[in-house]
Amino acid sequence: MASGGLQLLGFVLAFLGWIGIIISTAMPQWKMASYAGDNIVTAQALYEGLWMSCAMQSTGQIQCKVYDSLLKLEGNLQATRALMVAAILLGLVAIFVAVTGMKCMKCMEDDQVKKMRMAVFGGVIFIIAGLAALVATSWYGNRVARAFYDPFTPVNTRFEFGSALFIGWAAASLAILGGAFLCCSCPRRETSYPPTRGYPKNAPSTGKDYV
């Protein structure tokens, strides 16, 4: 029962992490314009994401523009996109694999060894998906921080971390943690020894000797 509860907990955490990765990928707030400089007064907030850039007016109206050409984008942004999409696809595969190996499911009940291996394999895929999302968000955040502290970057073009980055970091951590729980939910096999055989008992003598 303990391993089954750990397995269910791991799947729930990993699934929530996968949902968070999707939300983070779709959000445009990967970085937001910084107003840390002096005498900067603006009536709008600027955001940039993986797919579009947005401007929110002081009235609350938001205008977004999808990036025109894929080939004109920076290589770093394209790589970040690829890693996040790969994390989503890997998470989708991990869900199907892990569900097949869940103890509460009826699939593969005749072979418990393969069933446990499927759950562990799903956990490994979840960990890989979480690592891909963690690398993508950390790489993007590192570029934002380097540009912010670069003295040659104009003050009015500096950006800070957006909310999508924090969601991505949390989601990647949940996916990795949930995958680790799935991998640890497989109970260890106990060493089985063949049953000891007793020595055959001698038949009681009847007292009759046959010639």
UniProtKB/TrEMBL annotation:
Descriptive protein name: Claudin
A GO CC term assigned to this protein in UniProt: plasma membrane
Similarity comment: Belongs to the claudin family.
GO molecular function terms noted in the UniProt entry: structural molecule activity
Chain ranges passing through the membrane: 7-27, 79-99, 119-141, 161-184
Record's bilayer topology term: Multi-pass membrane protein
Keyword Endoplasmic reticulum: no
Protein species of origin: Nyctibius bracteatus
Places the protein is found: Cell junction, Tight junction; Cell membrane
InterPro entries: Claudin (IPR006187), Claudin1 (IPR003548), Claudin_CS (IPR017974), PMP22/EMP/MP20/Claudin (IPR004031)
Lineage, broadest ranks: Eukaryota, Metazoa, Chordata, Craniata, Vertebrata
Main location: other
Keyword vocabulary terms for this entry: Cell junction, Cell membrane, Membrane, Tight junction, Transmembrane, Transmembrane helix
